[in-house]
Amino acid sequence: MPRFFIRTFLLALAASWLVPGLRAQQTEVVLSATSSAKLVLGMTSPKISGLDAATVASDFTAVLRKDLDETGVIAVLAERLPADGAPAKAWKEAGAQWLLNAKLTKAANGDLQMEASAVDTSAEKGVFTRTYNANKIVPLRYLAHYLADDLVGRLTGEKGVASSRILFVRQVSPGVKEIFQVDRDGAGLVQLTRHGSLTLAPSLASDGRLAYITYKGGAPEIWGQRRKDGPHEKFYPTTAAGGMLSSPVWSPDGKRLAFVQGDRRGNSDIMVLDVASGRARRLTDGTGINTEPSWNPNGNQIAFTSDREGGPQVFLMQDDGSNLRRLTAEGLYNASPAWSPNGAMIAYVSRFEGKFDLFVYKLGEGKAYQITTGVSTSESPAWSPDERLLVFTSNRFGPLQLFTTDLSGRQIRRLTELPGCQSPRWIRGR
Amino acid sequence: MRYGTYLVPAAIVLTLGSLACKPPKTAEQIKQETQAAFNEGVQAFKDGKGRETNPYVNDKDNPHKAQGWFDGWDKAKADKEAADKAAAEKAAADAKAAADAKAAADRAAADEAARRAAEAEKAAAFKAAAAKALLTIHFDYDKSEIKEKDRAILQGIADFMKAFPAAKVEIEGHCDERGTNEYNLALGNKRAAAALAYLKTLGVDEARFTTISYGKEKPVCTEAKESCWSQNRRGEFKAK
Questions:
Q1: Is B228 part of the contact surface with chain A (CB cutoff 8 Å)?
Q2: B134-239 adopts what CATH topology?
Q3: Residue A21 neighbours by CB under 8 Å, 6+ apart
């Protein structure tokens, strides 16, 4: 994570030495990722050729506007818009700090090209220029996502997540669950497995390889892909019955899988499988329940849930099982830890008055913050790749559906209206 | 001259007599003629000329020819009769063999049907006993201890396992919807293990059981209330 440290250092520098807020000095960083100030962006109507205006309005402009609104760092100017062709000065007077121009061209063979540029309206100089070439199979919506991600990247130093995807498990019929994928804006639903049985707990390596649990052979088995875009094959157990298996999670380097194996005495333990050699190693000590492993971004520590001290609580340990320590102090039921992509926070769920809420434990502060409150249950938190949002499941509208929330818990959005969803995972799309 | 009176006629008689009378056939001649007649008859038979009457039958001078002819005729007849008889015997043997085989097949089929019926009866008895014994037990929230009221059910399962020594059973652990998917999978495993441990204390070989946890993935009731949750926190027993 050198980039993270550099960014943190630069942010600290900017906060202590420079005027807080917007300042770009010899770095890419314009806005602190945690600042609540938003950059106001003016958007001119895209110039189009080979495409009809209605399609562009619905599949590009509206998508881009929604993407940018949901970034949390950019506000799209919506009122008192200057007329098309007005100079940057007019946009500045209307309140826009940046002005975005886009030109979309559809070639005769169906390929798309987008030239996008942004200018700073006060300095009247370009701050962003990029040309995108997309094969004809790429939907127009994706160009909007790519542009939104790159604008956020220009602004904050870390690419946005508009083009990211969310993996989840969904019940297709009683007793049959399969893994699905949906774009971050709720469009583009794709079914990834067709085992016709219980299929649970998807995990995606950074290069896109899937691992999951399926009961297709009667007993649970760990399945996954050995190479990118490769076939789905059985990883574990390699020989006979493996007992209870759950929660395969790729290590950040994509070489190992942490998983849970239960024995016939009722214990379940965190194991680590070296995928290339097929060798598995037990990390916990075989008493009680140990489950829900989550790697830190360095891949040298694992957070997990254990009932060794009574009810379920979140514990941390090294990836060899040493240095075991309890993380959560309050509450009788804390579970489902999810280590944040940059390693500084751990999201988990805690039971309070019979329902579950999301909490985030900040490791630097040693304190937990409650994210969701209410009468409904919120479960299975997973981090967005930019650490800005959490995706989770909730029954607030009846059946379990997917929602996202920011870390303040004030901006909760429903991702899809599909019922019966569980175990979401959030991954970068490109 | 007196002698001439007798001698001359005598000489004449002897001379004429010897001229008139052929000498008798030798045994060798008779044998050859008999053989020739025989061959002639065989040939006639073979040619299928249907000579039903013997050409030598009225040849009084050569009765051996008539006899020789008859010999040939009788042999062919005997051969034909022997062949007919053999064919008839073979047909009869075949028929008998076929009949025997059919009888054996019928018997085997009857045996098989009887065996099947017995098996079906046994399977039905097993099924009935399994349905009667393999009842569902229930657990308290976030607990895996066997409840007092479920002990009779587990005793019934142990009795069933002893009554059917070949029976194998899968113990399924299930949970209610509260709690995380993964923690509930581990809890379901703990519940199945608790049932297994209890059955072991009742003297059933634990190798005859497999355990599986479905966590909260297979509820029997999907409403968010205690009456529903208590049904879902369960251990099921399935004959394999």
A1: no
A2: 60s Ribosomal Protein L30; Chain: A; (3.30.1330)
A3: A31, A35, A37
